[in-house]
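Here is one chain, start to finish.
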Amino acid sequence: MKNTYQHIASLSSIAAASILLLSACGGGSGSAGGTAPASGPMPVSISFDLLANGGVAKCGTTISGLGTKNTPADLKDARFYVSNVSLIDANGKNVPLTLTPNDWQSDQVALVSLIDGTGAVCGGVPMLTNSVVTGTVPAGTYRGIQYEIGVPEALNHSDYATAAKPLGVAAMAWSWTSGRKFLKLELNPAGGVNVVRTNTTTTPATTTTSNTSTWNLHLGATGCTTNATTGAYSCTNANRMLVKLAAFDATSQKISLDLNALFSGVDLTTDVAGATGCMSGTTDAECQPVFSNMKIDLTSGNPATGGVQSVFIARTK
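Its structure:
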């Protein structure tokens, strides 16, 4: 019996030693993508959603309190392209995220689509959605994220009819610039949008008023021309929104597009110049507050030099 007890004790000691050895070989953890491998690429999944009034905004549910007049509105469309994604490491260095190609993203750009078709305004039929951008970074610890809302210039002017995913989406094509809508956010305000136009070429000036259902925000490159010889495009205004979140952990947080922040200073009930809403026109009065909120200089199309954007924010999942 004594030998039996000694044998059991010996086995227990071996097991305990094995557990300690396995624990010692466990490796570190990465704050941006879960548990990091000891070496090699670390998977990262970045989640997005829409935010309004402190809660998730979605198709089929009226959103209250938007813009200068606290206008209620129904969501019609909400899609945007994400590119040039980097995680920020513990030393403040940007480390590029290698995108994992799938139906919603190539190795250079991803499409986030937050409309599911619920309700007539938002399509009326079920639609596939995508709220996640996935990829890999070298194993390590990361504290923040940086990315652009936009399509890389080398890809922006490709033919959507033949382009590979996710650029072959007709609804995101922008025919008059032969490019893409980088961000498409459309709302139907209660009571519609009063479109007021003043003709100053007459004496006296005349004013006409009409009503339309949708306030459109289409962000994209403008001032685009093509070289007749080479066919290459160039645009005077890039209009790519730079987003940097100094504190972001993809394991426990998501990124929300805050509609209250995006439409701060905007009157969604009236439009006085340019296309209805804001379609990135440099002289469009409705674009002034929106571009200011996105921290894009409306005149040049470059990132604004002052202030920090609060349109995209990190929140707990």
